[in-house]
Automatic annotation (TrEMBL):
InterPro entries: Amidohydro-rel, Hydantoinase/dihydroPyrase, Metal-dep_hydrolase_composite, Metal_Hydrolase, Metallo-dep_Hydrolases_sf. This is Amidohydrolase-related domain-containing protein. Pfam families: Amidohydro_1. It comes from Cadophora malorum. CDD domains: D-HYD. PANTHER family: AMIDOHYDROLASE-RELATED DOMAIN-CONTAINING PROTEIN, HYDRANTOINASE/DIHYDROPYRIMIDINASE FAMILY MEMBER. It comes from the Eukaryota. One of its GO terms (cellular component) is cytoplasm. Belongs to the metallo-dependent hydrolases superfamily. Hydantoinase/dihydropyrimidinase family. Residues 55-453 form the Amidohydrolase-related domain. NCBIfam families: D-hydantoinase.
Length: 492
């Protein structure tokens, strides 16, 4: 009988902590050995992959993915369900998804939203998965359920400072943060000032300006900057960790890094759309720009991109997630084109479903840019998300005896180059915002708990629907509240 289930040999292994010529042995779905190249010569295994000098990394962890969601961000509903979204993930080297379980404003319970989302994902996933709860009704019942969420393996939730269907008032945000501190839950905050956005939309409507490009005008940087500062202020008042999601503006990032320098547990996320897209992508003939409508919107140009890259390099950003929020473009009932009517022949920007697809392209795009040091790349695309959301070292690392054998094996440098087209992708979306871009890397193999689920040159998608497992998560292993004492109003 073979000693191991799988060997991955001759790779340049990159983790967040080290880079080296290591060989890997896998047994029972776990990393069993990570040893200098050649140490496993003569060892038997059921399967051997020769990485031929290509990079081998922990599988990607994408902690911001929307699947099978109803209309929440404008009209429209998700084009991807748990099957197609997780299929797309593994084809792009991501082995763990954390998606959202949305609570409706009319629904008092978070546990009910969790149960409904479990039903949507059960037996459907190609990748492993967990959920962040979206809390849009922070009433007494929802707050009282935080402890039960922890019991159910959920240690994070997302709240919104904008969108009619989701927005919380500052007092409600404080209620959430106060209980999150007690239960050791990480709160993700969508930081845009809803009132500034609504006011600006009215000004544009008065001038009859409806084209997709006015989505950018209606979400000015000040809306993000103000809300980011307010989110930091509210969380520092309660002394509780937060993560500001999908940061687009370097000025908002400056508030975050200032807070981090003060020692506050403020974490932040950015996404490929803020590294590769600009407002020009929304200013295309006809309705085409709608493909790149997301919130916050892509900003001006190279200077903003540079600021966001620097934030990744210097640690202001903890994670690089996709914010995969897929809508069909052509579909006229639930897609982007659902906002075209006789009254608005070019659509009306304020109704366009907000979101872009990107779960499959996240890692290849970022790696192809050749901008981040390799260990930093692993940190922001895998390890830090696992740490922040209570999955490390099971996910996000290659720790023998502890980590699941989740691996992304890349092609040796220079072996492949692609012009990206939507037809290469495995999502259920009819476009990619990155159509035509040159991609210098793509996962050759994706391995999930020791099973090859993606083999680009040997059948492509070889994983099985339903192999993906729900992951019970623990509390974050990144720094939490600064004080161990119970929060006491008399201290202020
Ligand atoms: O436009 C975006 N980002 N759509 C997804 C919804 C959200 O707020 O993440
Ligand atoms: Zn958001
Ligand atoms: Zn999102």
């Amino acid at each position: 009988m073979a000693e191991y289930d799988l060997l991955v040999l001759n790779g340049l292994v990159v983790t967040a902590d080290e880079t080296g010529q290591f060989d890997i042995a896998v047994k029972d779905g776990k990393i069993a050995k990570l040893v200098p190249r050649g140490s496993l010569d003569g060892i038997t295994a059921n399967k051997t992959i020769d990485a031929e000098g290509g990079m081998v990394m922990p599988g990607g962890v994408d902690a911001h993915v929307h699947l099978a969601e109803p209309a929440l961000f404008g009209k429209g509903k998700s084009a991807d369900d748990y099957e197609t979204g997780s299929r797309s993930a593994i084809a792009g080297g991501t082995t763990t998804l954390i998606t959202f379980a949305p609570q409706r404003k009319t629904e008092p319970s978070l546990l009910a939203a969790l149960a409904a989302t479990h039903e949507l994902a059960k037996d459907k996933c190609y990748s492993d998965y967990s959920f962040h709860l979206i809390c849009s009704n922070a009433g007494p019942q929802a707050i009282s359920e935080f402890a039960a969420l922890r019991e159910a393996g959920i240690s994070s939730l997302k709240i919104y400072m904008t969108y009619e269907a989701l927005q919380l008032k500052d007092s409600e945000i404080l209620d959430v943060l106060f209980e999150a501190r007690k239960q050791k839950i990480v709160t993700m905050i969508h930081a845009e000032n809803g009132a500034i956005i609504d006011w600006t939309i009215k000004k544009l409507e008065e001038k009859k300006l409806f084209d997709p490009k006015y989505h950018v005008t209606s979400h000015p940087p000040v809306a993000e900057i103000e809300a980011t500062y307010r989110a930091i202020s509210l969380s520092s008042f309660i002394d509780v960790p937060i993560l500001i999601v999908h940061v687009s503006s370097p000025s908002a990032a400056k508030h975050i890094s200032d807070a981090q320098k003060r020692g506050l547990p403020i974490y932040a996320e950015t996404c490929p759309q803020y590294l590769f897209l600009t407002r020009k992508d929304l200013d295309k003939p006809g309705f085409e720009g709608a493909k790149c409508v997301c919130s916050p919107p892509p900003r001006e140009g190279e200077q903003d991109h540079e600021g966001i890259w620097q934030g990744l390099e210097n640690g202001t950003f903890t994670v690089l997630s996709s914010d995969h929020c897929p809508f069909l473009y052509e579909d006229t009932t639930v897609g982007k084109k659902s906002v075209i009517s006789a009254e608005y022949p070019n659509g009306h920007f304020k109704y366009i479903p907000n979101g872009c697809p990107g779960v499959e392209t996240r890692m290849s795009l970022a790696l192809s840019a050749n901008r981040l040091k390799l260990q930093k790349f692993v940190e922001v695309t895998s390890t830090n998300a696992a740490k922040l959301y209570g999955l490390y070292p099971r996910k996000g690392g290659l720790v023998p005896g502890e980590s699941d054998a989740d691996l992304t094996v890349w092609y040796p440098d220079g072996m492949k180059e692609y012009q990206l087209t939507n037809s290469m992708l495995h999502h259920n979306v009819d476009h990619t915002p990155y159509e035509g871009r040159t991609i210098k890397q793509w996962p050759r193999y994706t391995i999930l708990r020791g099973e090859v689920v993606w083999a680009k040159d040997e059948g492509g998608l070889v994983g099985k629907k339903g192999y993906g497992q729900f992951l019970q998560r623990d509390m974050s292993s990144l720094a939490g509240s600064m004080s161990k004492e119970e929060w006491n109003v008399e201290n202020f």
